[in-house]
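User: Please fill in residues for this 314-position structure.
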């Protein structure tokens, strides 16, 4: 990557990028840090196996022959306020002391204003269907995958900011999320977790005084709302559309590489030397997705769309 090497502590988004991806982050020992300088992420487990978008400028375009584009979050222009954090996520997943929420470095990190040591922010290229028809390239249009963290339990979690600015996949969007939808995601993901239903997790929610304009009811009545960012976590942010875009584009070698990576990292019950491993993968994903939908229905939740943006493991 062009630019200077990374310092140990967090630094501002948009600064020069590292020449080489930093070393993998290891678990922080018990006695969790309250300062982010004692904490690190890694992006190399996602960067090493796959080609990266060769264009580094951040503008909307069709992207081919890669899985990710390197793109930095765009910080809010106005003051940012902390709305909520998940104590469970901070302490038991990220190995951070709850007191970190009072740190200015932490506030800048979770709002996209600072990049943690070891992070190479990425936007993921994927495709999908809309209203029953193939829509082509979609991708992370307002989200940045800011790194992978392996905690003291040996769990590997991918961290993503949602609402953190434009990427090459933003299409006609502004790269932002608003407070009402961000509150909904924060509360629903944590509620699903405590109901025992597979879900992503929400670590934090911030709001700014930046104006974001939205037509909430799609009736032509555009109103001013406040911009917000959620820091969310999942074991993987790959989804069904991650494979579909490669199949539709005829990028079959990259499709096999991504399939093998997903199977090896997230489906240990499937043997990599099994000639039928892709069929086993398909069968497992269908079964687990069906089970997930049944769990939703059991608590009265209706998705409404169930698109190919759904993850492989709920």
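Assistant: Residues filled in for all 314 positions:
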């Amino acid at each position: 990557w062009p630019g200077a090497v990374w310092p140990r502590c967090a630094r501002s988004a948009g600064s020069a990028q590292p020449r080489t991806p930093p070393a993998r982050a290891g678990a922080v020992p018990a006695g969790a840090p309250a300062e982010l300088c004692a904490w690190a992420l890694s992006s190399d487990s996602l960067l090493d196996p796959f080609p990266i978008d060769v264009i580094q400028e951040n503008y909307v375009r069709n992207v081919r022959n890669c899985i990710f584009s390197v793109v930095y979050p765009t910080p809010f222009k106005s003051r940012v306020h902390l709305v909520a954090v998940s104590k469970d996520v901070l302490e038991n997943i990220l190995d951070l002391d709850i007191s970190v929420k009072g740190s200015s470095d932490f506030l800048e990190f979770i709002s996209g204003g600072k990049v943690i040591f070891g992070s190479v922010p990425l936007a993921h290229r994927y495709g999908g269907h809309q209203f029953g028809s193939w829509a082509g390239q979609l991708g992370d249009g307002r989200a940045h995958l800011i790194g992978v963290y392996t905690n003291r339990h040996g769990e590997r979690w991918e961290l993503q900011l949602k609402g953190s600015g434009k990427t090459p996949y933003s299409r006609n969007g502004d790269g932002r999320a608003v407070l009402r939808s961000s509150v909904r995601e924060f509360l629903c993901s944590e509620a699903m977790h405590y109901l025992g239903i597979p879900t992503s997790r929400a670590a934090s929610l911030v709001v700014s005084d930046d104006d974001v304009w939205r037509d909430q009811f799609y009736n032509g009545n555009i109103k001013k709302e406040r911009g917000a960012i959620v820091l969310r976590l999942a074991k993987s942010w790959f989804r069904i559309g991650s494979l579909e875009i490669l199949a539709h584009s005829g990028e079959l070698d990259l499709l096999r590489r991504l399939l093998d990576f997903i199977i090896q990292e997230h489906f240990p019950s499937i043997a990599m030397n099994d000639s039928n491993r892709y069929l086993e993968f398909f069968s497992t994903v269908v079964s687990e997705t069906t089970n997930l939908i049944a769990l939703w229905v059991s608590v009265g939740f209706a998705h409404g769309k169930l698109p190919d943006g759904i993850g492989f493991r709920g």
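For context: The chain is about 25% helix and 20% strand.
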